[in-house]
DNA sequence: ATGAAAGCGCTAACAC
DNA sequence: GTGTTAGCGCTTTCAT
């Protein structure tokens, strides 16, 4: 495997051509202060003439930094949340990094082999920090990285007392707001289609549903809640079907994700129920840019851009300080009303 | 910015603990031959005890390789082709790299800033090679990388005489086959909805359409061809609308992408034409895993997995040899019949 | 089979 | 301001 072509000019050659010392060239390429303007220009001319490009391995070795961060996606992230969610986060992260010299590296970790390889890559010092899209309780990666002392920021948390730095949406609050809105608009028989409860995000959203009922003094009927095995449309469809079978009087549903909501809508249509007139549906909105106004649904929208920006801010801060200050950020969600109620 | 935590054990410390020289430790971690088994085990024990992880910057500097390759996506790739296309390629690439020590890095290049940063990253020796998803004629990146002597493989080509190594589907052949199939099934008034002709891929597909007509001795009517400004559904819809306006007798359409085809189908439905009974539609299938059997459409399918694997094979080969052998691979497409004709 | 030693190209600390 | 120097931690000859 070849790399920087043999014969690539080095800093030393630049220095020789410009008639200055290596230190001066180093200062120029790092725009450090304390270099006379004429000298700087002379060096820049030499750099241009030679087509000099700094060797980043050498810089890394001497400077103890990689000027790169990795954003890790597990296979399940990719599938579960779908593209739009992912796209918005990545764009926000990229934007937040624009004014820095930090290169963003996306990596896919699907198998144990890939995880091992990535951990070696990260621990080996090729990145200064790691952003994790992962949210699975069983994922060992966050702890591996944290134990290795690598600045790490997660999107979402694995449990209520997550130790690794994270940024999350206010899932419980958002769900509570949604259900409260349904109650205020006069709905009473409100079902819930939950995601898999071994995921903390699903747990939070279901908790929000329950809290809203409780706060309004509405008795919680366990048979109004269906736990899905995943967040897919198919699961939403099935959940909705069983829900209307058990509860013909149902007049509203809170779905823990927009894909679940989409499935629910379909099942309602198939059952001849009109939405939102007969049954109002509110979904938690993980994918919003994808489905413009498509199901005329009131949704709980997450501030995806803000989440990405917050992740970068936290990561950069952790990269500065040596004594890592663990921190958590929870961002508010927004209830976007269309014509549900 | 911190990196490998201070206090990280070095190869030297491992050597000391194991009571051997640095060279021996190096041989062990690279599992080079010529180390006695007992020695090897002693070293491995020391590595485990210390929790040693090689410093990749140092390895890179001394070894002249990065053990990493980048897959670059431009903003337009990402949007234009959509997720499924992208996903399949990336998965295939990842799989092809599984048995190597090479880490796959996805990078997003949207702006000039990001392009500059990436070029410095790549030329700086942080990757041994680059895979480009880009297909835009105006994209300067391929030439920048090639000029820098970096092994580079493109997906698709920018023109008929592309100099950079690429892997491409047989776009002209696929289109020709599709239109021939329509002709053979008795259709005669066959329209074409083309993509933007400043993209070589669109040019090829349209050429295939024309060649099929010519081979069958059917006169080419220019008013049966609509050039879209992009590959979106909206464009497909508009193109189809204008097509049936001009040619009520139309009984088949070749669309240069599946999104264009989807738009065309919609417009046909809105116009009260039945598909495929009244009008047969064949699309070139860029996204197939996404739309399982959704529009009951015969499509020209690209071997996405093979494309990804071929890209990796070519890249690895270029990384081996010093005298770069420019090469191009064009893979056959497949006509997947559903009930179009 | 294994140890010793010479770099790889840069940054940063220190002298001038 | 600018030149000099000492590493950063590894791979790779070259001895032994």
TrEMBL record, chains A, B:
UniProt-listed Gene3D superfamilies: 3.40.50.2300, lambda repressor-like DNA-binding domains
SUPFAM superfamilies (alphabetical): lambda repressor-like DNA-binding domains (SSF47413), Periplasmic binding protein-like I (SSF53822)
Record-level Gene Ontology MF annotations: DNA-binding transcription factor activity; transcription cis-regulatory region binding
One Pfam family here: Peripla_BP_3
Protein name from the UniProt record: LacI family transcriptional regulator
Provenance organism: Streptomyces parvulus
């Amino acid at each position: 495997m070849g790399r920087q072509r043999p014969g690539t000019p080095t800093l030393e050659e630049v220095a020789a051509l410009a008639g200055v010392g290596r230190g001066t060239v180093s200062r120029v390429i790092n725009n450090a202060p304390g270099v006379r303007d004429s000298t700087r220009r002379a060096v820049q001319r030499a750099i241009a003439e030679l087509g000099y490009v700094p060797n980043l391995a050498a810089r890394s070795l001497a400077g103890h930094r990689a000027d790169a961060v990795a954003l890790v996606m597990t296979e399940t992230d990719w599938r579960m949340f779908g593209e739009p969610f992912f796209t918005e986060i990545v764009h926000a992260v990229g934007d937040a990094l624009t004014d820095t010299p930090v290169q963003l590296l996306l990596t896919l970790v699907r198998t144990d082999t890939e995880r091992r390889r990535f951990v070696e890559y990260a621990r080996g010092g090729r990145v200064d920090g790691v952003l994790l899209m992962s949210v699975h309780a069983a994922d060992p990666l966050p702890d591996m990285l944290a134990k290795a002392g690598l600045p790490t920021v997660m999107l979402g948390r694995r449990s209520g007392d997550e130790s690794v730095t994270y940024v999350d949406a206010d899932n419980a609050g958002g769900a509570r707001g949604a259900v409260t809105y349904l109650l205020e608009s006069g709905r009473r028989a409100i079902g819930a289609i939950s995601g898999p409860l071994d995921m903390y995000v699903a747990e939070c959203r279901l908790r929000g549903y329950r809290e809203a009922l409780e706060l309004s003094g509405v008795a919680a009927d366990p048979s109004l809640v269906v736990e899905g095995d995943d967040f897919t449309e198919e699961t939403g469809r099935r959940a909705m079907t069983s829900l209307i079978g058990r509860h013909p009087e149902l007049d509203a549903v809170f779905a823990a994700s927009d894909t679940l909501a989409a499935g629910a809508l379909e099942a309602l249509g198939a059952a001849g129920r009109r939405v939102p007139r007969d049954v109002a549906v509110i979904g938690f909105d993980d994918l919003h840019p994808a489905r413009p106004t498509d199901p005329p649904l009131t949704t709980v929208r997450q501030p995806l851009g803000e989440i990405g920006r917050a992740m970068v801010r936290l990561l950069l801060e952790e990269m500065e300080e040596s004594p890592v200050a663990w921190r958590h950020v929870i961002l508010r969600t927004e209830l976007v009303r269309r014509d549900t109620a």
